[in-house]
TrEMBL record:
SUPFAM superfamilies: UDP-Glycosyltransferase/glycogen phosphorylase. Transmembrane segments: none annotated. Belongs to the UDP-N-acetylglucosamine 2-epimerase family. InterPro entries: UDP_GlcNAc_Epimerase_2_dom, WecB-like. This is UDP-N-acetylglucosamine 2-epimerase (non-hydrolyzing). PANTHER family: UDP-N-ACETYLGLUCOSAMINE 2-EPIMERASE. Residues 24-367 form the UDP-N-acetylglucosamine 2-epimerase domain. Gene3D superfamilies: Glycogen Phosphorylase B. Its EC number is 5.1.3.14. Keywords: Isomerase. It comes from the Bacteria. CDD domains: GTB_UDP-GlcNAc_2-Epimerase. GO terms for molecular function: UDP-N-acetylglucosamine 2-epimerase activity.
Length: 376
């Protein structure tokens, strides 16, 4: 029997972080030939993660161009992957989550009649335009998928409600926990000296991220105004904001948050320092999806700067609260977590719903089981 050819496709930093444990697990099995193809939808941020986890791609489409549209990304990934899939002829293509690379990768595999495995399947916000374009990407990918690797029971229920057969769904936990636990170090030292000098013992360090397309404009203005008000009223906090490269975010942050002594706007962080900063923070504010999964694993409350989330398990578990994009609500929730120890401890000590760090093992075991009766 020849080896099972599994080709992992990803293109952004979040995908790479969550696929790295799966790729490393695939490499451990003699019966599997692991092939990695990156689209480099994000170039520099992707390369940082590849270096950290020591993954060398077999194929690199290098599609990144400044200012490219979603249509351009989709078409370039689709055309590039057509040639790679024809050459490799994998038994299964693995895609992750909800990026444009994810959907285009699944579609390219479908066009070549290659089976698709979807890691982190079943997330749904219920609003096709939020997050945009991710909600549509993951729904469309789901229609092309043979094996759905669902992180939680809630994700599995979403898939069942859409008519996916239960035998095609595998409950795994989230691979982001696998990755996170590999990089957190108690004695970690940051390259950015400001982060080494912060008083983590006596100050409440709040880590924030904000960059989503749907928050640009008035929502982002409300978010930043709330942050500024809370910072001005609470000397015991220090807010660290690794700022996105988007000029709209940067200009608005400079206008509203600049020159505030306890707000530190810094350049974006690589995954390893960001993960370790999460581990030392008091709480997190974010409009990102992945952080809603990572921070609870470290016992850190999260306020989500969005009006809905595709990760309701965290809300139900009590590790996450939806702060929305209205100034008064954001201020109220921040003040509560800063001053109310009972409210803080309830969130910090809630059980993380995203697993135990063994999601990659379950994913690969399911792939082996799926192909066990086939003569590869």
């Amino acid at each position: 029997m020849s080896k099972i050819k599994i080709m992992s496709i990803f293109g952004t930093r979040p995908e790479a972080i969550k696929m790295a444990p799966v790729v490393k697990e695939l490499e451990k099995h003699e019966g599997i030939e692991s092939i990695v193809c990156v689209t480099a939808q994000h170039r520099e941020m992707l390369d940082q993660v590849l270096d950290l986890f020591q993954i060398k791609p077999d194929y690199d489409l290098n599609i990144m161009k400044a200012g490219q549209t979603l249509s351009e990304i989709t078409s370039r990934v689709l055309l590039g992957l057509e040639e790679v899939i024809k050459e490799v002829r994998p038994h299964m293509v693995l895609v992750h989550g909800d990026t444009t690379t994810t959907f285009a990768g699944a579609l390219a595999a479908f066009y070549q009649q290659v089976k698709v495995g979807h890691v982190e399947a079943g997330l749904r916000s219920g609003n096709i335009y939020s997050p945009y374009p991710e909600e549509a990407n993951r729904m469309l990918t789901g229609r092309l998928t043979h094996l759905h690797f669902a992180p939680t029971q809630g994700n599995k229920k979403n898939l069942l409600a859409e008519g996916i057969k239960e035998e095609n769904i595998v409950l795994t936990g989230n691979t982001v926990i696998d990755a996170l636990l590999q990089v957190i170090k108690e004695d970690y030292r940051f390259e950015n000296e400001l982060l080494n000098q912060l008083d983590y013992k006596n100050k409440k360090i709040i880590l924030m991220t904000a960059h989503r397309r749907e928050n640009l404009g008035e929502p982002m203005m409300n978010i930043f105004s709330a942050i500024r008000e809370v910072a001005d009223q609470n000397e015991e906090i220090e807010i660290v904001f690794p700022i996105h490269l988007n000029p709209q975010v940067r200009n608005l942050a400079a206008e509203i948050l600049g020159n505030t002594k306890n707000i530190h706007i810094i350049e974006p962080l690589d995954y390893e320092p960001f993960a370790n900063l999460q581990g030392r923070s008091y709480m997190l504010l974010t409009d990102s999806g992945g952080i809603q999964e990572e921070a609870p694993a470290l016992g850190k409350p999260v306020l989500v700067l969005r009006t809905e989330t595709e990760r309701p398990e965290a809300v139900e578990a009590g590790t996450v609260k939806i702060a929305g994009v209205e100034k008064n609500r954001i201020v109220a929730l921040m003040e509560e977590l800063i001053h109310d120890k009972v409210a803080y401890d309830q969130m910090a000590n809630a059980v993380n719903p995203y697993g135990d760090g063994k999601a990659a093992q379950r994913t690969v075991a399911a792939i082996l089981e799926y192909f066990k009766d086939e003569n590869c």
